[in-house]
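Margin note from the TA: students keep mixing up input and output lines. Inputs are the sequences; the output is the structure of the whole complex. Example:
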Amino acid sequence: MGKKVSMAVIKRLPRYYRYLNDLLKVEVKRISSKELSERMGITASQIRQDLNCFGGFGQQGYGYNVETLYNEIGKILGVERRFSTIIIGAGNMGNALANYTNFQKRGFDLIGIFDINYNRIGQKVNGIEILHTDELDDFIKKKNVDIAILTVPSRNISEVAEKVVELGIKGIWNFSPQDLKLSHDVVVENVHLSDGLAVLGYRLKEKEENNSSN
Amino acid sequence: MGKKVSMAVIKRLPRYYRYLNDLLKVEVKRISSKELSERMGITASQIRQDLNCFGGFGQQGYGYNVETLYNEIGKILGVERRFSTIIIGAGNMGNALANYTNFQKRGFDLIGIFDINYNRIGQKVNGIEILHTDELDDFIKKKNVDIAILTVPSRNISEVAEKVVELGIKGIWNFSPQDLKLSHDVVVENVHLSDGLAVLGYRLKEKEENNSSN
DNA sequence: TAGATTGTTAATCGATTAACAATC
DNA sequence: TAGATTGTTAATCGATTAACAATC
């Protein structure tokens, strides 16, 4: 009952999942926390600690069965569950995401794309017709949409976000640099791409300074 | 010297920068750590602690001058410094990033786009002609490129990354889900978009379970 | 001056690592 | 069985929060 797993652990799960998938592909059957730790560049202790938040998936003296562990982490992440997803904002980023096949694999079904620009309406992206945002209302009510991916301009983000949560959206994946403050209780993941780029700039600059001061 | 500021602090800097920019726009002149903490949803203590890693930008009894603080954080992040940047992989994601005007503002100048597909060569994205990856070699040597944004398919990522670091690239912004293990000493920032989506799925699933168990 | 708010030290909290008994 | 490796508890490390003297 409510063990309360920390975000630090949860954020590492997709990475474990990826590494296990790679191992599966090259037909590795079993792996010890020690070997996995060397591949991933984290401590074996952390791996065991992380996994034991969710249950004892390993076996003493043997390690972990790769396929079992992969499936278990998949279950934890909810890969079995399907999430119906829409994209709002059919600009370049919306386009790129709509064509991202990985999402389908991870349990996210893209069922609609919306834009405010009439020139875009009716065009298809990855086989899905772009609808006008005026139709959002009807669409969400009819189709029971779980997640909205927001790739609209920053100035519209709060408005669009408020609207979709009122219509019953449960999760938002926000690509605008603007932080979302929402009245409703909804799960939000922010991407904030340019923040990552800023950190890259910082690290680069700092490295140069260190090098020149030696 | 080398105070060694932790990554946790550095990752918060772009967020401070954004909030200060918003305050500037609405012409707020001064702000206390307390008021900023309320807006950002973090503690005032953390704000003061974070900022003091880089110097005393505030004034007792007054708070912080918004413009000064904004500029100081900009300097720390290296906004003044220009980074010449190329995109490798002119697919949907490469396209989207090439059209992202924010990067220019943050000190990143896009000076080249490359693709392996001959059909794309010669087309322009955001005013920049797409070149074939065969020309990477010459281009990087001639133009002194700082950063490569990699939006190539996962299967090519290691190869392309190794190539650009050999040619002298100092920083990589990696959009492939594959982790990079590079022989050279180079700054890498990974985006791993689908990891973020996976976390969103987890949180959504968990919330449902909590709700239904009440 | 008195009030406000910083810069900074100390206390707390949480996350990572180490260690080892349990056990396959 | 003996060796290997987990699950788990305890120790360490680092990051966040609280507190308050310094000072604008």
